[in-house]
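hey
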């Protein structure tokens, strides 16, 4: 009985070695499909695409690209629908972008602002173009310095500069 079990194990081991060698050879073969490089858009092309796109806010988290496309179908020919998602959980962030084939579709879709999609009132506005190198200014920098270092207490006043009062005497 032990001898029979040993022969079964050796046969199984031979099968695994055969499968392993087949896998090794299949990975070394060139793929049948060529690798297609991803086309990057120039800043001018991106700005032109943004001119044909709208931002859609307050989108239901269960909404799909197909449902958004059918909602905006009457506005014009749609090139692309993008629902932004969390990169780890893949859950919707609650907003999307719809790119139309022409600017007329974008103009028509602005009229869909405050329409209902899956029971939620959506917000449709023109997509803004992000320009590289422009960041939001630091706001209230002098006030934020006032609130530091007081043991966590929130200081509700800020130093006020009265100005030069002249010579008092």
């Amino acid at each position: 009985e032990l001898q029979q079990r040993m022969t079964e194990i050796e046969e199984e081991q031979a099968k695994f070695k055969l499968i392993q060698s087949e896998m090794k050879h299949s990975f070394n073969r060139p793929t049948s499909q060529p690798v297609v490089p991803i086309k990057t858009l120039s800043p001018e092309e991106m700005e032109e695409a943004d001119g044909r796109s709208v931002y859609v806010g307050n989108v239901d988290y269960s909404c799909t690209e197909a449902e958004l496309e059918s909602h905006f179908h009457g506005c014009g020919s749609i090139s692309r629908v993008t629902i932004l998602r969390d990169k780890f959980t893949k859950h919707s962030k609650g907003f999307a972008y719809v790119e139309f084939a022409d600017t007329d579709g974008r103009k028509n879709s602005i009229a869909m602002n405050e329409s209902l999609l899956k029971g939620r009132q959506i917000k449709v506005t023109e997509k803004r173009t992000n320009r590289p190198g422009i960041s939001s200014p630091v706001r209230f920098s002098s006030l934020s310095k006032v609130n530091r270092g007081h043991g966590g207490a929130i200081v509700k006043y800020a130093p006020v500069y009265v100005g030069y009062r002249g010579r008092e005497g």
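The longest helix spans residues 2-28. The chain is about 35% helix and 20% strand.
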